[in-house]
Design goal:
The protein is α+β, with helices and mostly antiparallel strands. 17% of the residues lie in helices and 36% in strands. The strands form 2 sheets. It has an 8-stranded antiparallel β-sheet. The longest helix has 16 residues.
Length: 246
Amino acid sequence: MRIQADFRSKKMETGLVRVYILGPDGTAIGTPEIIGKPQVQDVLRVFLEQIVSQLHIQPGPPVATPHPQSLPPQADPSSTVFHLVARGSNTATWREFPAENWIVLDQSESNALLPPGAANLNSSWEVPPEVANKLLSWFYPQTEDTSRTNRSKIIREALRMTVVTLDRGMARARIEASVRLVHSFYPGRDTGETVEAKLLGFMDFSPGERRIQRLRLVTEKATYNDEVFDAALRSVSRETLEAQGH
C-alpha cells in the first residue's frame, strides 16, 4: 500500500491495526501507538491535539455531518422493532465500543410474547422457542462480523413471563430468561466461543388490545468464554420509528 510505504520510508511504525494520520497532500504525518493502551480514545485525542498544534490548524466545519451509524430497519407497522446493545469487558481494543443489532418480530411473533390466555395476576407462560431464539441469539459481545448473518447456534434457552401488576387495563410481566449459545468470534471459523447468560426484564402490555407497550431485557450475569459482557434489549415505539422516518 502506498500509505504504508510512505510511513515506512519515514521510519514510522506500520501494521494492520493502526491509525494513520495524513496531511492535506495525502502524505504521512504520524501514527499513534494504540495497541495495548488503556483508554484508546484519550490517547488518540492527545495525539491529534499535538498534530493540530504542530500544523497550526484552524477550526472549521466537520468534513462529514455527524449522524447515527446504526438505524432501524424498515418494518411493517404491525411488527415490533427491538434495539440491542452489547459490550465486552476487554479494554484497550475496539471492543471498548458497544455493538448494535436490530431485531424485528412480525405480528404473529410479537403476539407469542403475550399470554396465551387471560392475563391474571401471577399467571406465567413460556415464550415459544422459535420466538425466544430470535431475540436471545443476538446476546453476545462484539465479534468480527462482515454481514448481518446470524452465526449463533443456541444450545439451550428459556424465556418466561409472569404477570406482577394489573392496573387500569395495563399489565406488567416480569421476564426471566437464560441462554447458552455458541458464536464464533470470526466469520467462517468454528472456534467454539460460548455464551452463558442470565437475563431479567419486564414487559408492559395491554391484555385487552393484546398490544406490547414496552419491553426491556438486560443481562444479569453473562460470559463469553471467560469474558464478562453486558447487553440490553429494548423495544422501540412506533412514534420513535416514525420520527426517524420509518
